[in-house]
Amino acid sequence: MRELDYTWSSNTSSGAQTAVEVHGDLIASAWYFRSSTGVATATISVQSAPTASGPWFDEGGSTAVTSGIVHVVRVAGPMGFARPFCGSTGITVRAIGVS
Description:
mainly beta, Jelly Rolls, 5-stranded antiparallel sheet, 4-stranded antiparallel sheet, 9 strands, 0% helix
């Protein structure tokens, strides 16, 4: 069953994006980071926390993306809250998670 289906856009701001609450039943998720052309190398990661106010932890480590690339990060659950971190503007993130 789909527990997480959300899209973020870092077109106006970089850094930590808006957090979403995730059902505790989530066992697996895939995060698709798509960088637009013109994006220089940027650090991306998936962060999780037990509450919306943190503390926040990097899941699966951070990695760098470059212009025009789609990068997939797979993260196992459970998570209380989750958000992407985008080190640049111009990155769209789609997260899908299942129980």
